[in-house]
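Comment thread on ticket #2218

A.B. wrote:
> Attaching the input chain for the structure job we discussed in standup.
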Amino acid sequence: MREDYVSCLSAGGFHHMHYFEWGDPAAEHVVICAHGLTRNGRDFDTLAQALLPEFRVVCPDVVGRGKSDWLQVKEDYGYLQYCADMAALLARVTGPGASAGPHVYWVGTSMGGIIGMLLASRPKTPIEKLVLNDVGTLIPKAALERIAAYVGKDPRFKTFEELEAYVRLVSAPFGPLTNAQWKHLTETGAKRREDGSWGLCYDPGIAAAFQKRSVADVDLWTYWDAISCPTLLLRGVQSDLLLRETAAAMTRRGPKPQLLEFDGIGHAPALMADDQVKVVRDFLLAPTPSR
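C.D. wrote:
> Ran it. Output below, let me know if you need it in another format.
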């Protein structure tokens, strides 16, 4: 695993978006893995290793998360900024020094999936395959209210063990994980404060988007209908963010994806279990029409 950053621009100035990279930098196929709202690029360690050696895998920390900079103007946290930052990353991984015209695939969990949808819907998009992990064209108000209840609270804990217990609680919908997997998610998402306490490595200011406007259903059907690349849709059977009826409707419109569901899981599958990793790998390895 290697680490680097790309310089991006917001209304408040330049900022660094950190990313982790696996595999051959000259690989013909590049997979961008984008994480959920409060998570980070290390969530994809298991998937990235499973995609080697066929793929180059790039896992960014979306601005305000992980090792990336925090924005000075908190109201700038939003999809317009995230898409602009990812455009800079796409230019980096497909530009000079990369293989000639690499094939770009996108794997996005929740927020990362929305970013992928928005980018894949644009004319001349470089994204040739899209994997959406438990996110769709209609984000219910109830799910957004649940998220708004904990995002931005900036909890502090005296010990790492207390932090891990909290992560297990709020991330319980990820499904059954091993003790080692829970420890990994906690370690890679933790930040030690100057006073010795433990917290989470994201800017509480990312909650500004929830606090500045009334919460309502989010409709993304216009973007969905503009997507034409092969798409795989994953869903936790108990998910409150991607409802069953929404997922079913998505299979009949836009890119008409294959829908796969995982029982005993809510929002969102962690993509760490063997069966989840296999379906993503098989989809990405499957032949695609020539460009």
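A.B. wrote:
> Thanks. Noting for the ticket: The longest helix spans residues 79-94.
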